[in-house]
Amino acid sequence: MSNEEKISENQEEDTFWEDGSFIESVSAEEMKEKEKTIHKKHDEDMNFNCKECNKKISAHNKDWHNEMCDDCFNKFFESH
Ligand SMILES: [Zn+2]
After folding, report:
1. In the chain, count of helices (H) and strands (E)?
2. How far apart are the C-alpha atoms of 47 and 53, rounded to whole Å?
3. What is the pLDDT of residues 13-24, one digit of tens each?
4. 49 CA → ligand 1 middle, Å
5. What integer pLDDT is reported at residue 14 of this predicted model?
6. How many Å apart are CA 12 and CA 80, to the nearest integer?
């Protein structure tokens, strides 16, 4: 039924961020802090430094790219 298909599609979208499968290792408190930055652009709030090369990074990169700039983050995951 096409109606049922529509409903299940919507449910998937709604629960994507809520079920927490994306990040399992952070506490609820940390998650609240991180939720503030996930919707920020990767070049917004450049108030941090890459832990690898000390380049300016955004709050988004700090929380979501393992405290690395995009370059180091990519290298990190290529080499691991
Ligand atoms: Zn870097």
Report:
1. 4, 2
2. 15
3. 555 555 545 555
4. 8
5. 53
6. 31
What's the CA-to-centroid distance between 15 and ligand 1, angstroms? Answer: 33
Closest by Cα among 40, 60, 38 to 70: 60
- Identify whether the C-beta of residue 40 lies closer than 8 Å to the C-beta of residue 58: yes
Q: Where are the beta strands (DSSP E) in the chain?
A: 48-49, 56-57
Q: Does the predicted model carry a pTM greater than 0.85?
A: no
Instruction: Please say whether the beta carbons of 66 and 48 come within 8 A.
Output: no
Task: Report how far residue 80's alpha carbon sits from residue 72's, in angstroms, rounded to the nearest whole number.
Answer: 12
Q: For the chain, what's the residue count?
A: 80
Ligand 1 mean position to 30 CA, how many Å?
23
72, amino acid identity: C
d(CA 68, CA 58): 9
